[in-house]
Amino acid sequence: MQTDKQNDNTQLDQRQTGGKIKWTKNKYEVILAILLVVILLLVLFTNKPGRYKPFRSRGTDLVSPYLTHKLAPEFLDNVQLDLPFEMVITQDGLNDIVSRIGWFDDSGKVTVSAPSIVFRQDVFYIMATVKAAGVPTVVTIIAEPVVDNGMIVFNLRKVKFGSMPMTVVAKRIVQKMIDEQMADVAEDDTQKRFWKALLNNEPFDPSFTVYDSQIKITNAKIEKEKLTITILPIPEK
After folding, report:
1. Are strands 110-120 and 123-132 parallel, antiparallel or unpaired?
2. Which residue among 38, 69, 188, 206 sits deepest, i.e. has the most Cβ atoms within 10 Å of its Cβ?
3. How far is the C-alpha of 89 from the C-alpha of 67, rounded, in Å?
4. Beta bridge partners of 89
5. Do residues 119 and 103 touch, judged by C-beta distance below 8 A?
6. Could you tell me which of 141, 174, 177, 167 has the C-alpha nearest to residue 49?
7. Residue 130 — left, alpha, or beta (φ > 0 → left; ψ -120 to 50 → alpha)?
8. Are strands 135-143 and 156-161 parallel, antiparallel or unpaired?
9. What pTM, to 2 d.p., does this model score?
10. CA 58, CA 115: separation in Å to the nearest integer?
11. Is 98 helix (H, G, I), strand (E, B) or coil?
């Protein structure tokens, strides 16, 4: 009888021990799987897209020579004729202009740096490095704009953090960041109107005052590494 009882206890201990070993093994597998997922998400989040190549401005001028020596003279020569005209803006030239502009205040918890714009057939990419809580990632905004009834519709296609397409979530985060950065900026400010229209797919009125001249962009064509716009001077009333 005693021997049978000892055998029963031994079997019970073995079952309990076996169950514990099995649970411990499963627990470690779950933890390992979670770690792998976290690492994968972190890699995707911090991955730098191949298209992201921020422009390094030559010289120390605060204003781009491409703007002052190329675009401005061409614009002023044509706008005074009061006739529609075309201007071609190169990708490198635009990035030289953009790289010298302080887009956002970088003194807060979230900083934005190294903006870059890429033109591909009918599509443009706006990219920049965003650092929050010490973790940098490249935010990419992809849009396929069209001009419709005198308004530009940006047709936002995708917003990505690193290599992760997170359009809905990322759009909200970017919008919140812009709202905070531009809280004191007037609602009719061109840059504020642009971001609002882009992120919300709202029609954007491409009417501007440039060098004291009223103009409207009536057409835009995006090709690889260049943007061609048609400008209509608006006579003073």
Report:
1. antiparallel
2. 206
3. 10
4. 227
5. no
6. 141
7. beta
8. antiparallel
9. 0.77
10. 16
11. helix
Query: Are the C-beta atoms of 157 and 144 separated by less than 8 Å?
Result: yes
Residue 146 burial (CB count, 10 A): 12
Residue 235, H or E segment: none
CA pair distance 137, 43, nearest whole angstrom: 10
Side chain identity at residue 118, one-letter code: V
Burial level of 86, CB count in 10 A (0-12/13-18/19+)? Answer: exposed
The β-bridge relationship of strands 123-132 and 135-143 is antiparallel
Per residue of the chain (237 residues), give pLDDT as tens. Answer: 545 545 554 444 544 455 555 556 676 666 666 666 555 555 555 678 888 888 876 665 678 999 999 999 999 999 999 999 999 999 999 999 988 876 665 556 777 888 999 999 999 999 998 887 777 889 999 999 999 989 999 999 998 888 777 777 778 878 887 787 777 888 888 888 999 899 988 999 999 999 889 999 999 999 999 999 999 999 876
Distance CA 135, CA 35 (A): 18
Cβ of 178: how many Cβ atoms within 10 Å? 20
85-90 and 135-143 strand pairing:
unpaired
Task: Look at residues 144, 148, 98, 96 and name the one whose alpha carbon lies nearest to residue 122.
Answer: 144
